[in-house]
């Protein structure tokens, strides 16, 4: 289906795909995340995601939640290293209501002092909950190991000390310094004409004063591989092994996506799942991941296993690395891998909530969106030799970092 785009006079971009469905999805994605914080602001981007719902000039927190939920919709938000998003799912009849609410939240949030103090306790509990989950916490510690000293290394949630210290002035200062109109994308998927949604965007978002980004993010340049073993009272040994990978702008990014899917993607027939779980019964959860940032990227493998099985499990992981570095995929193997990834992308596009966020993020990063057929063409064009080249760069044992909880 056709995708329409527009740029408002203040620089905010709009992307919309009209679909035949009673449900609609709309949100704003902002090119600001935890890596944009100063050291004393650690955790404030995520904290703003929480408190942005706590009151505006004309609504209290209850009225914000009820505005969408009273008509069966859902409103949500997330913060990543480089993005903040506020978005909602609702019936098509309520586009106007939803867009007005999100604009009110974005423009008119007042961050009442009592609400800030109450929400600090909620975030502190979120931090404590995270600390109780070693299979999640280890990824943050791995970021600290790999991106040592750089803003990407910092935990998105922040520290209890930082969270307790935030004031309304801190929040307004961060918004002023980081919420730029040319770094915002309105993304929509629903059964509404582009003319109508453009009219609503002009009504509710064009009045936002123009504020353009004039500085660049601190790039990450110096990576030193490291190994760290942390003693923790856990029933399993948790392990992450990984390396730097390609940025969102790198031509090898799609090849890395395919290689990661072959190695440890979401399917049960990934090489790591077959090697560690199916053939050897050494792990319940084993996966690999690839995250592309604007200027760098990260590849990692995670697994949890019995304490005595760590060395053997690592040997199995490294064996799969060597196979992908040294043995090219055959024609049938490569064809199967491409069909699998294409199928996963196609199925994911049927989740309209995810589709809305994907369209918005792509438009935010690249100022364009590849159609599904174009994406499939890019995947089909990947060769076995290209995958081997990527494997030899990313799986280079001299460049791998390892973190274990034992």
Any idea of the CATH topology of the largest domain? Cytochrome Bc1 Complex, Chain A, domain 1
Q: How many individual domains?
A: 2
Main pleated sheet: 6 strands, mixed
Known CATH architecture of the largest domain? 2-Layer Sandwich
Number of strands: 11
Helix % is 40-55%
What's the tally of helices? Answer: 15
Describe the SSE topology.
Elements: E1 3-7, E2 13-18, E3 23-30, H1 44-51, H2 61-69, E4 74-79, E5 84-91, H3 95-108, H4 113-131, H5 134-146, H6 160-165, H7 168-178, E6 184-190, H8 194-204, E7 227-230, E8 237-245, H9 253-264, H10 271-278, E9 286-292, E10 297-305, H11 310-326, H12 331-349, H13 352-366, H14 372-380, H15 384-394, E11 401-405
Parallel strand pairs: 2-6, 7-11
Antiparallel strand pairs: 1-2, 3-5, 3-6, 4-5, 8-10, 8-11, 9-10
Helix pairs in contact: 3-8, 9-15, 10-11, 11-15, 12-14
Q: What does the model show?
A:
This protein is an alpha+beta fold and 406 residues long. The chain folds into two domains: 3-204, Cytochrome Bc1 Complex, Chain A, domain 1, CATH 3.30.830.10; 227-405, Cytochrome Bc1 Complex, Chain A, domain 1. The chain has helices at 44-51, 61-69, 95-108, 113-131, 134-146, 160-165, 168-178, 194-204, 253-264, 271-278, 310-326, 331-349, 352-366, 372-380, 384-394, and strands at residues 3-7, 13-18, 23-30, 74-79, 84-91, 184-190, 227-230, 237-245, 286-292, 297-305, 401-405. The strands form two sheets. Strands 1-2-6-3-5-4 form a six-stranded mixed beta sheet, with helices on both faces. Strands 7-11-8-10-9 form a five-stranded mixed beta sheet, with helices on both faces. Helix 9 (253-264) packs across helix 15 (384-394) and helix 10 (271-278) packs antiparallel against helix 11. The longest helix has 19 residues, at 113-131. The radius of gyration is 22 Å and the shape is globular.
């Amino acid at each position: 289906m056709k995708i329409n785009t527009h740029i408002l006079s203040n620089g905010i971009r709009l992307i919309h795909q009209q679909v035949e469905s009673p449900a609609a999805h709309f949100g704003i994605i902002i090119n600001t995340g935890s890596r944009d914080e100063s050291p004393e602001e650690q955790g404030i981007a995520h904290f703003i995601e929480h408190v942005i719902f706590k009151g505006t000039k004309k609504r209290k927190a209850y009225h914000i939640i009820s505005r969408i939920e009273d008509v069966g919709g859902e409103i949500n938000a997330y913060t990543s290293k480089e993005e903040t998003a506020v978005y909602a799912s609702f019936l098509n009849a309520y586009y106007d209501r939803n867009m007005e609410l999100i604009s009110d939240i974005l423009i008119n949030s007042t961050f009442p002092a009592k609400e800030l103090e109450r929400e600090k306790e909620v975030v502190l509990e979120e931090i404590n909950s995270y600390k109780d989950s070693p299979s999640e916490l280890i990824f943050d510690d791995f970021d600290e190991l790999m991106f040592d000293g750089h803003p990407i290394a910092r935990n998105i949630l922040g520290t209890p000390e930082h969270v307790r210290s935030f004031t309304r002035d801190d929040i307004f200062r961060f918004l002023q310094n980081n919420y730029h109109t040319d770094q915002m994308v309105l993304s929509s998927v629903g059964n509404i004409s582009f003319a109508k949604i453009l009219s609503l965007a002009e009504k509710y978002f064009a009045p936002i004063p123009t504020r353009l980004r004039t500085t660049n993010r601190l790039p990450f340049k110096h990576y030193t591989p490291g190994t760290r073993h942390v003693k923790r009272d856990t029933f399993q040994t948790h392990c992450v092994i990984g390396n730097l990978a390609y940025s969102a702008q790198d031509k090898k990014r799609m090849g890395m996506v395919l290689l990661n899917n072959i190695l440890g993607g979401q399917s049960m027939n990934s090489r790591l799942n077959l090697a560690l779980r199916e053939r050897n019964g050494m792990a319940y959860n084993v996966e690999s991941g690839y995250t592309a940032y604007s200027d760098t990227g990260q590849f990692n493998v995670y697994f949890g296993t019995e304490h005595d099985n760590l060395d053997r499990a690592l040997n199995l992981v490294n064996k799969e690395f060597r196979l992908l570095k040294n043995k090219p995929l055959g024609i049938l193997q490569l064809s199967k891998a491409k069909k699998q990834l294409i199928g996963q992308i196609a199925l994911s596009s049927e989740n309209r909530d995810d589709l809305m966020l994907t369209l918005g993020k792509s438009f935010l990063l690249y100022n364009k969106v590849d159609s599904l057929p174009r994406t499939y063409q890019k995947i089909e064009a990947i060769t076995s030799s290209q995958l081997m080249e990527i494997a030899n760069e990313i799986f280079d044992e001299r460049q791998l970092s390892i973190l274990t909880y034992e």
